[in-house]
Amino acid sequence: VVYEHRSRLERSLQKERGEHKKTKEDFLVYKLEAQEALNKEKQDSMNRYGALSSQHKILKNQHEDVKKQLLDLQLQHNSLKLEHRKTLETHSQKYAQLQQEKDSEVTNLQDTVFKLREESKLLRKAHQEVHSQLLNAQ
Q1: pLDDT confidence of 24, banded at 50, 70, 90?
Q2: What is the 8-class DSSP label of residue 1?
Q3: How far apart are the first and last CA of the chain?
């Protein structure tokens, strides 16, 4: 009985050892596959990170370029605004000067016209007198 019991226990132990060995092998295969999957996922993540990092760097550089362009354009705008203001001032002064010259010239011409009319009246009067004297002399 003891011998038979021992024989059954040994067979059971052998069976358990076989199952244990198979389970251990299955676990090692599972562990290896999980490690490979993890490594692949890690590699994919690193690739995505690299791509995003590269894209970030490019966008950052573009941002800096656009910022620089904006500053340049603002400086150019301010310079053009100042130039426009100066030109407007110059034109306003020139316009005022020309207006003043025109007014002065108009006044001078009006004076000249008045004097010429007066002279014309005097000449007509003198002409009339000379004409009257000629008629009287005849």
Answers
A1: very high
A2: -
A3: 195
